[in-house]
Each structure stands twice: as C-alpha cells, then as structure tokens.
Design a protein that fits this description.
With 166 residues, the protein is an alpha+beta fold. The chain has one domain: CheA-289, Domain 4 (OB fold (Dihydrolipoamide Acetyltransferase, E2P)). It is 21% helix and 42% strand. The chain is built from four helices and eleven strands; from the N terminus they run αβββββαββββαββα. It has a six-stranded mixed β-sheet. Strands 3-6-7-5-4 form a five-stranded mixed β-sheet. The longest helix has 17 residues. This is Chemotaxis protein CheW. It comes from bioreactor metagenome.
C-alpha cells in the first residue's frame, strides 16, 4: 500500500516538471507534438494482430507485457499514404479514458519545452474535425510543430469500438 501512495506523490510532483513539455514526432515529414503527460510509453513496432472490422487506420492490437493495446496508424488517420514500417517507426502508447491506445508514428524526435508564448491558435480553415485535435501551432527553434490532442483524434464511438475487445 505504501508503494501506491509514493507513486501517486511522485506523479503529483512530476506534473509541474511536465508542464509545457511535448513529445515531438514526425508523420510524413510533418512535425507534431503531444503533451508529454499524455505519453505512457514509447515502443518499437512489433507484431500487430489484425482485428476484423476495425477501421482501416486501426491496424489491430499488440500484446505489451500482458496488456492488449489497440494500435492506430497516425498516417492513415490523417488520410496520408501508408508507408512501410522501418527501424525508426515507433508506437506511442497513451491512456485515453482509462484505456491504453498506441499510435504509430514515422519517428520520434525529442521531448521539447515549448513556452505558451511560442504557441499560436490553429487557423480556422479546413474541417471542424481537424480544428478539434490540432490545438495549436508552436515555433520551436527553426521548426513548426503542430500540437495535437490525441484524445480528440478519435471520436467517442471510435474509441469505444477499438477499446471494447472483451
């Protein structure tokens, strides 16, 4: 019981150190960022078991140390061309509504501190859907980073579909 309390205290202490920190990653030569607090783990691509009637962008599931995790290919979700996975391809495991979901990205870049002063609101063009999951546009040195909320990349129905595997 003591261990659980210590873990909770450590998590609470870490929240301040996680503020304004983003994991940046590439998908089709575009740099994206997600709050580092949303990241549970980063793993290399491994064998993915296909699941019948999953949407095209949901590649299937992996078994990560006994936990079944549905896998979303970010390229396909963003309506980009599918690409062969290579040694740089990674799965970013996140927790959404209490369920683990993995997102396949072309490569992970870095953990970057981005101050709020360097973040602009996304333009109000394109579909309303895009403006729900693109939360901002950041300037990071000489790079532009599209900040995403992965929780909004899938709607509730899609999350329910891919996480209700029992």
């Amino acid at each position: 019981m003591q261990d659980k309390i210590n873990t909770i205290d450590e998590i609470n202490l870490d929240e301040d150190t996680l503020k304004n920190k983003y994991l940046t990653f590439y998908t089709e030569h575009q740099l994206f960022g997600i709050p580092i607090a949303d990241v549970v783990q980063i793993v290399g691509v491994q064998e993915i078991t296909r699941v019948p009637e999953f949407p095209d962008y949901a590649k299937g599931v992996i078994n990560l140390r006994g936990t079944i995790i549905p896998i979303i290919d970010v390229r396909l979700r963003l309506k980009k061309e599918e690409k062969q996975y290579d040694e740089r391809t990674c799965i970013i495991v996140t927790s959404i509504n209490g369920s683990y979901i993995g997102f396949i990205v072309d490569s992970v870049d870095e953990v970057a501190k981005i101050s709020e002063a360097n973040i602009s609101n996304p333009p109000k063009m394109g579909s309303d859907y895009v403006s729900t999951y693109i939360t901002g546009i950041a300037k990071l040195e000489n790079k532009i980073v599209l900040l995403m909320n992965l929780k909004k990349m899938l709607n509730e129905k899609e999350i329910e579909l891919i996480t209700n595997l029992d």
